[in-house]
Design goal:
- By secondary structure, this protein is mainly alpha-helical.
- The chain has one domain.
- The protein is about 85% helix and about 0% strand.
- The chain has 6 helices and no strands.
- α2 packs antiparallel against α4, α4 packs across α5 and α4 crosses α6.
- The radius of gyration is 17 Å and the shape is elongated.
Length: about 140
């Protein structure tokens, strides 16, 4: 029972601390789709993917840091690496999601292969920026 309580506390602490970041990006995405923002102003797509990478890395970094209350000490380099790779995996899954939207609903979200690769690159760069920021912040 104690383990369940610790896990519940870990999840709630992480959601309370950092879930706002990826939720803001998803909210902006839904808002942009509703107003055809990405068609009217295609340049908005690029910073949104960069910000998405930052938000994901922040969320995962927070989750990993908070998980130490449950799983014990995690070495700092492992925390950084795991947060970055988790964000990267989520970025790839998001691009699959966009492809599936196009395939099943003709949503026309994906413009080209170059668009998909650029989106993933920008997301990874955002995650890398956040990862480096966290590392620098914790060493100062």
């Amino acid at each position: 029972m104690k383990d369940r309580e610790q896990i519940k506390n870990w999840i709630f602490a992480t959601l309370r601390e950092s879930a706002w970041a990826p939720l803001c990006i998803v909210g902006f995405y839904v808002f942009g789709l509703a107003l055809d923002l990405f068609d009217k102003r295609p340049w908005i797509d690029m910073p949104s993917h960069l910000a998405g990478g930052v938000a994901l890395a922040y969320f995962y970094r927070s989750a990993i840091k908070n998980s130490q209350r449950v799983v014990g000490n995690i070495p700092h380099p492992i925390q950084i690496l795991f947060a970055f790779t988790s964000a990267g995996t989520t970025i790839i899954l998001w691009e699959f999601y966009e492809e599936l939207l196009d395939f099943f609903f003709d949503a026309l979200v994906v413009r080209s292969l170059e668009d998909t690769i650029r989106d993933m690159f920008l997301g990874l760069m955002g995650a890398l920026i956040m990862t480096l920021f966290y590392r620098k912040r914790e060493t100062v």
